[in-house]
């Protein structure tokens, strides 16, 4: 029987992921979809960083940022709440593509505010961290998946605290601390989600949903 998080906890239910070859193909498909999403996102960010005309146009028409932000929120709600949409092809892939484009647009605007070398360094560090965390998640000695509910509560509290901090925390050191906590939390989320995929426990979630979850963890 699956719980509210789409995780199959009943060992008596037949699990197609018990076959190593099936699980391996599924994981490869998830990470291929994730790679394409990150590649598209990186391409959009690169355009904003290296093409001055694009960055200037967006900064002159700042409302585009809020339109993209609104679309991200709407698409996220749709993908979370509407089973018929997120689990029917090709509608699910269309929503995933729109989500990736809007998210890349927002990241591109933020990246254009910084120097190109800073953006490239950040991308390099992110790639190295993701690779290290993924390899760590594949080991079997430490299981992070029992922390799912605890992490959910901590993340909600952190999100509310971070939103308040945007308006009231004027000290740079506090913002750095908030950022560090956020990086730590989402690093743990990346490990949890990867271990769930490796263990074949997310039977109620499709490839595109998993790739979106991992993309959010990384971004």
From TrEMBL:
<feature type="transmembrane region" description="Helical">
    <location>
        <begin position="119"/>
        <end position="138"/>
    </location>
</feature>
<dbReference type="InterPro" id="IPR006214">
    <property type="entry name" value="Bax_inhibitor_1-related"/>
</dbReference>
<feature type="transmembrane region" description="Helical">
    <location>
        <begin position="173"/>
        <end position="192"/>
    </location>
</feature>
<feature type="transmembrane region" description="Helical">
    <location>
        <begin position="63"/>
        <end position="81"/>
    </location>
</feature>
<protein>
    <submittedName>
        <fullName>Uncharacterized protein</fullName>
    </submittedName>
</protein>
<feature type="transmembrane region" description="Helical">
    <location>
        <begin position="93"/>
        <end position="113"/>
    </location>
</feature>
<comment type="similarity">
    <text>Belongs to the BI1 family.</text>
</comment>
<dbReference type="Pfam" id="PF01027">
    <property type="entry name" value="Bax1-I"/>
</dbReference>
<keyword id="KW-0812">Transmembrane</keyword>
<keyword id="KW-1133">Transmembrane helix</keyword>
<feature type="transmembrane region" description="Helical">
    <location>
        <begin position="30"/>
        <end position="51"/>
    </location>
</feature>
<keyword id="KW-0472">Membrane</keyword>
<dbReference type="GO" id="GO:0016020">
    <property type="term" value="C:membrane"/>
</dbReference>
<feature type="transmembrane region" description="Helical">
    <location>
        <begin position="145"/>
        <end position="167"/>
    </location>
</feature>
């Amino acid at each position: 029987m699956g719980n509210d998080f789409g995780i199959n906890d009943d060992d008596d239910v037949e699990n197609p992921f018990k076959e190593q070859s099936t699980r391996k193909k599924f994981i490869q498909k998830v990470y291929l979809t994730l790679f394409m999403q990150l590649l598209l996102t990186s391409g959009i960010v690169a355009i904003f960083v290296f093409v001055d005309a694009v960055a200037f146009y967006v900064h002159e028409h700042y409302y585009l940022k809020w339109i993209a932000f609104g679309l991200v929120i709407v698409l996220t709600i749709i993908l979370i709440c509407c089973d018929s949409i997120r689990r029917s092809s090709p509608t699910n892939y269309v929503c995933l593509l729109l989500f990736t484009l809007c998210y890349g647009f927002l990241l591109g605007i933020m990246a254009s505010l910084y120097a190109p070398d800073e953006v490239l360094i950040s991308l390099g560090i992110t790639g190295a961290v993701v690779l290290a965390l993924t390899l760590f998640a594949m080991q079997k000695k430490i299981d992070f998946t029992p922390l799912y509910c605890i992490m959910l509560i901590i993340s909600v509290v952190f999100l509310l605290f971070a939103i308040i901090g945007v308006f009231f925390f004027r000290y740079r050191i506090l913002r750095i601390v908030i950022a560090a906590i956020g990086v730590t939390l989402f690093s743990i989320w990346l490990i949890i989600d990867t271990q769930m995929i490796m263990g074949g426990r997310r039977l109620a979630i499709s490839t595109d949903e998993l790739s979106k979850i991992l993309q959010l963890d990384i971004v």
